[in-house]
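Homework help board

Subject: predicted structure for assignment chain

Our instructor gave us this sequence and asked us to write out the predicted structure in token form, then describe one feature. I got the tokens but I'm not sure how to describe them. Can anyone check?
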Amino acid sequence: MSVMKRLTGIVQAKANKALDKYEDPRETLDLSYEKQLEQLQQVKRGLADVATARKRIELQAQQLQTTAKKYQDQATQAVAQNREDLARDALSRRAQVATQLEQLKTQHDQLVTQEDHLKTTSMQLQARVEAFRSQKETLKASYTAAQAQASIGEAVSGISESMSDTGLAMQRAQDKIAQMQARASAVDELMASGALDDMSGSSDPIQAELDKGSQNTDIELQLAQIKGQLGVVQPAPSPELTKVSSDTGIGSEEVAASPVAEASPPATNDPFTLDN
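My token output:
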């Protein structure tokens, strides 16, 4: 049983929390005001019913008074005509009417008391409803102002739901931009280091062979310089080597003075040299 009570309490707590989330105090106040108006209308309808019943009794009493007076006149007339039997009958009926009048008077007094009580209750309830209406409007205005102030504060501080969504979208955009910039920088570094090939470069095989021949000529020139410094006899440089040496600052005098210049050049089989 305790487990069920605890489960019921948890369900009620969660339900109340969910209802509080969607409850608008202004709507609740308006509903309470409508219920009070309904109660006031019920009291007024009850007051009208009691007043109607009282009025009916008063009308009945007036009719009985008329009937009693008629019986009284008949009794007087019967005595004048020496008809005591008729006079007794008229007086007997008048006595019955008097009894009915007494009963109606009792009911009338009760209705008057009830009517006075309902009047007092109606006035008190009317005053309470008017006070509640004024208080309700004040509370609604205060709630609306507080809600607007909170919304403005949230918008200024950036913690409102819409502003939070906007902030998240901007943050995602900045993250994507930073990621793309980092990727572009990494690709540039890999291409500079040779780890990635530049697919946008020239794919001409002739140009590739020419670039390779130029690189080999440069290597041969450096090798000739090293051998010249060490006094190693080597054949005369090829026309391509002589041209490259002039471009790199090595004069023809230095080549002629070296032992390499006195040796006869061997036949070259340079595949990168075109026959004239």
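Reply (TA_rk): Your tokens look well-formed. For the description, you could write something like this. The chain has a mean pLDDT of 77. That's the kind of observation they're looking for.
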